[in-house]
Amino acid sequence: RNASIMVATKLVREGRAVAAVGVGPTGGVFASALQVLGTLEGLARPVIGGQFLGFTPETIMIDLGGSVDSRPDQLLDFGIVGIVYARKWMGIPNPTIALISNGVEEGKGNEVVRETYELFKKSGLNFVGYVEGNDVAQGKANVIICDGFVGNIVAKFCEGLGDVTAR
Hints:
Elements: H1 4-13, H2 26-37, E1 49-50, E2 60-62, H3 72-88, E3 97-100, H4 111-122, E4 127-131, H5 133-136, E5 143-145, H6 148-166
Parallel strand pairs: 2-5, 3-4, 3-5
Antiparallel strand pairs: 1-2
């Protein structure tokens, strides 16, 4: 209860701070935010996302590890969060949104990804379809959506690749 991240998050809730930054384990930061601040109204699950590749300053990926078993409707929610982020924080007026899969052809992916594809197609968002893992670093969309299982693997792979190439 008295961990520094919990104390910092409580300060945000009380209005005595505008943000809290955690440098410890993501799970602890995530848990403190969820426990103290909750989720945005209308969202069933919290989400982790943001920019993580310096090569693609106009691309964010969501989810990077918050929800590893998401339903299609939750992935659509994550897409809406990503669109708002891209508009408000990145200044992109009509951001493109894509769903990561194992191919760009319609019908690819597992059942959840295919169902999510259909939701995005009907959403009215600027949905450009599927992207593959190699498309992430090329900025093929402003907002790339996946569940936290896939997103965390992609993020950790990129971190490891960066470490190896920096040696």
